[in-house]
Each structure stands twice: as structure tokens, then as C-alpha cells.
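Next up, sample data.

:::
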Amino acid sequence: MKDLLYTLLFVFLITSCTEDEGVKFQPDSFYINTESTVVNEADGTIELTFNTSKIYTSDLIINYTLTGTAENTIDYTLLPIASVTIPTGELSTVLTINLINDSLIEEQEDIILTVTDTSNPELFIDASDAITISIIDDEGIAFQNGILIPNFGNAASGTISFISNNFTTTQQQIYNSVNSENVGNGLMSIGFNNDKAYLITTDDNKITVVNRYSFLKETTINTGLNNPRHFVVSGDKGYVTNWGDPTITTDDFIAVIDLATNTVETTIPVEEGPERVITLNGKLYVSHKGGLNYNNIISVIDTTDNTVATLIGIGDVPDEMIFDASNNIWVVCEGKPAASGSETGGKLIKINTSDDEVVTSIDFASTEHPKNLSYETGKLYYDLAGGIYSMLETDITLPTTPIITTPTFAMSVKNGNLYTTNAVDMISNGTLKVFDLTDNSEIQSITVGVIPRDIYFN
């Protein structure tokens, strides 16, 4: 990216004129150029070249002011700080700005250099004669190209673990270290939109908006939510599933967030226990796990008018949903547990999104309760009783032998690796394990936080 920017030449023309009456002068001009107006603080220096189209018989002094969010001696050093001089007989001079590469995580900062006047009265200057240099914080991309694990936490605040893609770097509690505060209680999930991440803390009824690469806090959304769960973006809106009061079966809803203002602008009433939410072609698909009870439907919501267009009846306790290569939706239904008094087995469901009809339903045994679901290159992966199973999307029967045996709380597959988290005992730090699917061998085991939940690739 930097190399591309360095190929650009930014030229700012300042045309001179004379204010002497009755005499017509040939306009003179000078301009400022630099290789790039967007730099990284680790780049070291910026060189601004002041050029004139005319050789003067005396030194041309160009006076300027410095403004902007970047500060001299803190973000950069610059001497002289008030003027530059194009020497007699020369056409240009160079002003060097030395960038300070600190260890702080900061937002983008700007240096605005504005020319105020020169020693030649023929050169007319106004407030538009300025150049802006944007400085990008190299720590501001500290959490790019890695894995994010939201840790639900127990009595204490939730935390977020970061693991680099090459597994050489692990950082715990990244939100806390960047912002010097806790993210909140019950960190349920993370949603994304461009360079923003939305940290959903269900116990606090709050969403914290951060830069997804620096984790610097931008704002919070703390009204209009009630037991928020999961987040997805469609168009310029965010949609968040909310359980409401788990003891009330009729107060569940989807909160609709205006992403420009980070406010809940309306809600969509839905059936009990909305959990996961995904989107395709202006439609939301919501799995209704049932909250503290049990449900067995997928809601399809039309985002053009924020109404429930249809309900798709599937197996009991539907949870994770994924798209395959043909944009069909696969859903893993856990089934009702024995503790419900009316145990049902799980199901694996395929929905055709062109007509929102169930086209495949594969039953598990009546006492089997699958969970977690991932898809990559034509294969489905799910977890059943501590075993990870794999099957082709075209299979009509379930596999009988796991490819990996490991305790699993959450699971994801990416680029030939399978990732699982294990919550251990709900009070100790959990683990992230990584398996190479070419031979199903474990290649990494990394400590994360308490009750690690989903796995996100940043």
C-alpha cells in the first residue's frame, strides 16, 4: 500500500499576481510537492519540496503555520518551525519533517502546513494554500492479520485474546490494554463492518464500537438493547438479536442500528430466543435457539421494511448457520436435551435461499446433540460429544467416525486448518487448539481467556 502511495505525486499550485495598478505582470508560481500525503509513523521522515518557477535575485522566504491534530515534538519534529528559504539563484528548497515512532496506539493524526506570506509582495497568498499530511499509527494495525477470541468471562469482565496468523504472537486482554478499562460483563460475540468491530456484552446490554485493527474505543451503544447476542450488517444498518427478559416469551426482538449515528433506530419483534443472524441479498436469517426455553424455527426478515417475511420450521434448538459455495444455508440443530423431559435428537438442515425452503434434513440419533458448524471447499464440519466430524455437502448420511477428538466449545475452519476453543472449567483460562486438516494433527495449543467463545479472523 505504501509503495503504491509513493508513486503518486501531489502538487499544490500557488499562483502569484501583482497588486500594482496599471502594470501587467507575467504570473509566477511556486508549488509544494511530496512523495505521499499519507505516511506511516514508522517511515522516519517526510520531505516537502518548495519550488518556484522563477529565479529571484534575493532569498525568497516562505512563511507558514502548523496546525492539525499531530503535535510538534510529540508526533514529529520540525525545524525551522515558521519559515523556509529558497536561496538566491535557486528554484527550490526542502523541508524535512522527522516522524516520532512511539509505542502508543493512536488514531490517524494530521499535520496541516499553511503558507501565510512570502518575502516577495508579488506573490498573493490565501488560506487555501495549504498541504495536509496524514500520519497512520503503526500500532493502529497491531491486531490485523490475526485471530480474535472473545472470552465471556465469569464474575469478572469479558476479555479479548489476539493470536497472530503465524501463531508467533499472543496478546491477552487487548481491549483493556488499549483503552485502560474493561469491555464489560458477558462478552458474547463480535460483529464487523469495514474497519469497525462491535463488541457485544450481553450482561451489560451494551455494544462497544472499536477500530477493529487498533481496538481503540470509538463509542458505545447502551440504549435500546436487552440481552443482545449476535450482530450482522446489511446495507447501512446493523442488526442485533436480543433475548429480552429470558423469563418472558414475547419480548424478543432484533435491534436495528443506524451505523452512521450508532443508535438503535427501531426494533423488529420476533419469536422467542433469537440467536445467530446472517444476511444475504437484503434478507436476514435468524436462528431461534429458544433462549432459556427451546425453539425450532428460522425467521426470514426483509430488510427493506424490517418485517418478518416467513418462518422456516426446522429441528429443535437451531444454532449456527453457514453459507455453502452455492449460497445455501446449512443449520445445525442441537435437539432438546434429556433435561428438557422431552429429548429430541439433532438435525443437519439445508435451506435453499432462492425460495427459503428446506431441501435436506439429516437426522441424528435421538440422544445425539451436535453443535458448532463450519464449511470449507465442499465439506461440512460439526462437533458431537467431543468429536469433530467431517462430511461432503453432497452426503445424505452422517459419518460414523470423528476425524479429531477434542473438547470443543466453539469451532471454525479456515485455509485448511480447524480451530477449536475449550472453556475448561468455566473459571480458568481456556485454550485455542489448531489442527491441520491434511492429516488432522494438532499443530497449536494456545492459552486464551475465561470461557472463550467464537473464533474470528481479522
